[in-house]
Amino acid sequence: MKKLTIIFLSICMVFQMGYASGNKEEKQAPVQDTIKMSMASDIDSFDPFLSVAYDTQAVNKNIFEGLMTFDENGNCIPSLSESYEVSEDGLMYTFHLRHGVTFHDGTPFTSKDVVYSINRYAGLDGNPAILDTFAQVKAVQAIDDYTVAITMKAAHFGFIYNMIQPIVKAGYDQNAELPIGTGPYKFVSYTAGQKVVLVRNDSYWGTKANIKNVEIYFINDAAATISAMQSGQIDFGMVLPDLFAPLAKNYDLIASPMNMTDVLALNNDETPFDNVKVRQAIYYAIDRQEIMDGAFGSKAVPIYSPVSSTMSGYVNTNLSHTYPLDREKARTLLREAGYPNGFAMTITVPANYVQHVDTAQILVSQLAQVGIDVTINSVEWGTWLEKVYSNRNYQSTIIGMTSLIDPVDILQRYTTQSKKNFYNYSNTAFDAAIDEALASQNNESVVKSLQKAQQIVNDDAGAVWLCDPEMTAAVNKKLGGYKFYYAGYFNFSAMYYK
Amino acid sequence: MLYLSRKLLSTLITIILAAVVTFLVFQILPGDPALVILGPNADPAQIANLHQSMNLDGSAVSRFLTWVSAAAKGDFGTSYRYGTSVTGLINNAFGVTLSLGLLGLLLSVIIGIPFGVLLAKQKSKGKGMVLSFFSQLGLSAPNFLVGILLISLFTVQIPLFPSMGYIPFSSSISAWFASIFLPALSLAVGSSAVIVRYLSTSIIEQNEMDYVRTIRATGEKESLILYKHVLRNSLIPVITIFGMLLSEVLGGSIIIENVFSLPGIGKLLTSSITSRDLPLLQALVLYLSIIVIVCNFLVDVVYQLLDPRIRLE
């Protein structure tokens, strides 16, 4: 027995030494030429035509670039195109492409790559369209090697944001296995379910990245992520704020609102939510601060319209005073609507989103105070998507909608015709305001129309907008330059070791 | 011959039934695979394109028959979620699960058998409370808890092993062992406790038997009685358990794989269900049924070797 134990332990020692000696530096301090990041979900596809996952695109933006990109304030800035002009009537965009850019395999970047990519997105090459947002594109034409003209079917203010989409090498269809882009990092390898490895593009046209290697590991267990950071295997990644404590010695917790809007959706087609007074009553009955403290550890920013407060140019700041917590008012409105004794309602929540389940539980107690009896129906994610989102078969639900940089996108979901309008909200004045915004030629009139639209949907209490939760990242203290963006983007090239 | 052909037939029927039931459940289960993959922020064109590539038209019966005819040729199709061949995904995951399972079971045998014998010895003298207590602890401790404790001890406090990721045997043997040791140990804690209890009970039972009394009467040394005669016979119920444990670990230890971020069968199984990845799930169900059947068969064979009185009737 003893002999066995001794033999067993010595075998362990031998193997352990082999591993530990080779990796001692890794545990002491981060290796200076590599960033190791953790991600909760796996890559869905490296091919920009196939990928949709938020996290994948956050990584892919290092490999691929579009004609435009965005900065950390949400502004659309030039990338592969140096400048562009829009015609008076908004129907033609002319892009002047950057010279001297090459793809990772050495092929020069020219207008034919732009034409190829946009034709694919818009479905102009015979294949089905990849993105409906390109539906207004009539044609794409290369004027010369470095000039591209895009003709539109109708003027659309938000179109320029579509130019953030990655430009792919013309005719190259192996991006799912070996992605080739123009970005600051090149693809090295991908092991499904395990990790992605990237290396710096030394022929990059812009400011070269500081750190040579990037390794992204997929760890979907929150506790395992923390342990990996504690043992020095991971340099940064998203963590939940209440799990951060053991990392405080070597890591900083950086938080920023993520331009996501958490909303209590009230199905405008179902009783009693087809009555605007009932919706407004619920608005008066909720205490946003309590929800933010209880479900988000106070790491959230309140919102009063579908547009998050982070979209500072577009959000209608007058709306923050519209429905203060006022339980008396709520009860009065309910009486007026014909519900003097309140009523019963069901909130369907997707069980995998802890914050939404927590929010629902807080709402139960808040709404009970005005006589509304809430039942929580917790369902699995796939079921939620089909029942609530697709079939709109629900009474009320809580969900977070991620926003893009395009300010019109999130508001468009409330238009009568939108396929994404699972709120079933309908108001012709609102639809008109959105159309106005789309047809606008200058930023000022867009802002005016969008703010008008927000006012309308807020007056109608189309939904109850709760907050924009903060995204929290634990970053090794030796790592600097981590920036938050309002759309998915892990900017590795901006990071450096102090 | 008749036995073998009957066994083969019942195996085939079991597998077909498993495939049919899985398929049927998926038809009833709400959840559009395209929507699950793309999420509520997806562009409607993307959803339409994905629907088309999934071939979701056609009646349930015709789709099932198409799958069966392809499967019979070994083609299990393309995963909805990963877009790559299903067989490729399962092969990669299988390597991980096999390493984890085999090392875990090896460890549980190394730990379980000696302690099982020790417990039997102590119990026959009226002692053994401490060991019994620990085996009870091993049985009841959830394996994810053991996993997290081990990570905390051997990765954070004493940096000995990595806490995540898997390095294949082919890359580096020492790195492979380091990446799989803690997970295998977490598995072994529970399984060895089972072996300890079964073995100790079995040995005590065997010790009561007539043939042991006879051997003892001939003046044989106690240790020789134990190791030459009793142990062999006591192992029989342990083999049954071992067979069950083997099919369990080869089916993918979902929780351990999750805690240690090992890309094994367990992870593949859970992700195929949540993403409604029917081709992958059907192939996995097939794989699991075959594993269970093969393990049971192996157990039968080992029985025969251990005890000539048991014949495959």
Question: Would you give an account of this structure?
Answer:
The complex is a heterodimer of chains A (498) and B (313). Chain A has 2 domains: 3-26 and 47-174, Dipeptide-binding Protein, Domain 1 (Dipeptide-binding Protein, domain 1, Alpha-Beta Complex); 261-469, Dipeptide-binding Protein, Domain 3 (Dipeptide-binding Protein, domain 3, Roll). In chain A, helix 12 (428-439) packs antiparallel against helix 13 (443-459). In chain A, strand 2 and strand 3 form a beta hairpin. Chain A has helices spanning 2-22, 24-28, 54-60, 111-122, 222-230, 276-285, 288-296, 327-337, 354-368, 381-390, 407-412, 428-439, 443-459; strands at residues 34-39, 68-70, 76-78, 81-86, 92-97, 137-144, 147-152, 185-191, 195-200, 213-218, 236-238, 251-257, 260-266, 300-302, 344-350, 373-379, 396-402, 464-476, 479-480, 496-497. In chain A, the strands form 4 sheets. In chain A, strands 1, 8, 9, 10, 11, 12, 13, 14, 15, 16, 17 and 18 form a 12-stranded mixed beta sheet that branches. By secondary structure, chain A is α+β, with helices and mostly antiparallel strands. Residues 18-28 of chain A have low confidence and may be disordered. Chain A contains 13 helices and 20 strands. Chain B is an all-alpha fold. Chain B is built from 13 helices and no strands. The mean pLDDT of chain B is 82.
List the helices and strands and how they pair.
The complex is a heterodimer of chains A (498) and B (313).
Chain A: H1 2-22, H2 24-28, E1 34-39, H3 54-60, E2 68-70, E3 76-78, E4 81-86, E5 92-97, H4 111-122, E6 137-144, E7 147-152, E8 185-191, E9 195-200, E10 213-218, H5 222-230, E11 236-238, E12 251-257, E13 260-266, H6 276-285, H7 288-296, E14 300-302, H8 327-337, E15 344-350, H9 354-368, E16 373-379, H10 381-390, E17 396-402, H11 407-412, H12 428-439, H13 443-459, E18 464-476, E19 479-480, E20 496-497
Parallel strand pairs in A: 1-10, 1-11, 15-16, 15-17
Antiparallel strand pairs in A: 2-3, 4-5, 5-7, 6-7, 8-9, 9-10, 11-18, 12-18, 13-17, 13-18, 14-18, 19-20
Chain B: H1 2-28, H2 33-38, H3 44-53, H4 60-72, H5 86-124, H6 129-140, H7 143-157, H8 173-207, H9 210-217, H10 222-250, H11 254-259, H12 265-274, H13 278-306
Helix pairs in contact in B: 1-13, 5-8, 5-10, 5-12, 5-13, 6-8, 7-8, 8-10, 10-13, 12-13
